[in-house]
Specification:
The protein has 261 residues and is α+β, with helices and mostly antiparallel strands. It is built from 9 helices and 8 strands.
Length: 261
């Protein structure tokens, strides 16, 4: 599947609550109503939550960028489906309507967007965990930038082949229910999407997403503490913490044609 990751910062005249309220109650239904026109397979809003753990996790890494206010995630079946939707008159009209509405609540120059491929690392069965607002699950979102001496490709390779196995080996001790690496890849449409939105922020090399039960998050037992220390030490080998960020979030699903496939 083809996936777009769109990190969102709110307009300066909006509070986070106002931003998320408009996004969920107005923009989300608009995207859902145009889902057929753009051939979207899935659309999920990831809403940042204020939680003391956000600052604790950043401090453990020596300081990080401020969390975004949320993330829009969209999936298509394949490249051909996406290209067909974007080139059709119906898809173009829908895209223009969505962009016009985005400008009402998103600080577009500060909101990077890119294309991604998923590399699942820890998967439940079935793979349908969601950090819904009324559940005890939370989703950790962790956009990454590589250290200066590493190319994006080398950092992604280390992330996938070294860091991924480390996190899998200690998932139980860490309380991880699901873990997916989402890697950015060059796509011809990325530049056009950035230009039409006036994006000025550099794209990340991808992001990690992990699901936890809040009741087990940040365990204070020795195994959890040791696992956390190993994870941060290994992250420092390929991640520039000062140019990365992480936070906890809840998910709102507006389009999902994946269930039952």
């Amino acid at each position: 599947m083809l996936r777009i990751t769109f990190l969102l910062r709110r307009r300066s005249d909006l509070t986070r609550d106002e931003f998320q309220e408009y996004w969920r109650r107005t923009h989300g239904p608009l995207v859902a109503s145009l889902g057929t026109a753009v051939c979207a397979r899935r659309y999920v809003q990831v809403h940042t939550i204020d939680d003391p753990a956000n600052a604790v996790m950043a401090a453990a890494r020596g300081g990080m960028e401020d969390p975004y206010d949320g993330v829009a995630e969209l999936w298509w079946d394949d490249e051909e489906t996406f290209a067909g939707a974007m080139s059709s008159s119906e898809g173009q009209e829908a895209g223009a309507a969505l962009l016009a509405d985005e400008a009402r609540f998103i600080d577009l120059p500060s909101s990077p967007i890119w294309f991604s491929h998923e590399y699942p690392q820890v998967n439940p069965t079935p793979e349908n965990l969601l950090a819904r607002p009324r559940s005890s699950l939370v989703k950790l979102y962790y956009p990454l930038r590589s250290k200066g001496e590493l190319s994006e490709e080398d950092a992604q390779l280390y992330w996938r082949t070294n860091h991924g196995p480390l996190i899998r080996s200690q998932a139980t001790a860490s309380g991880i229910l699901r873990y997916v690496q989402v890697h950015r890849f060059p796509h011809p449409a990325e530049r056009a999407m950035r230009e039409v939105r006036g994006v000025q922020v550099e794209a990340y090399m991808g992001h990690a997403e992990l699901w936890f039960d809040r009741r087990n998050l940040g365990g204070d037992h020795p195994e959890a503490q040791a696992a956390g220390a190993r994870a941060v030490a290994d992250e420092s080998r390929f991640i520039d913490f000062s140019r990365s960020c992480m936070w906890l979030a809840k998910e709102h699903v507006f389009i999902d044609h994946t269930q039952g496939d």
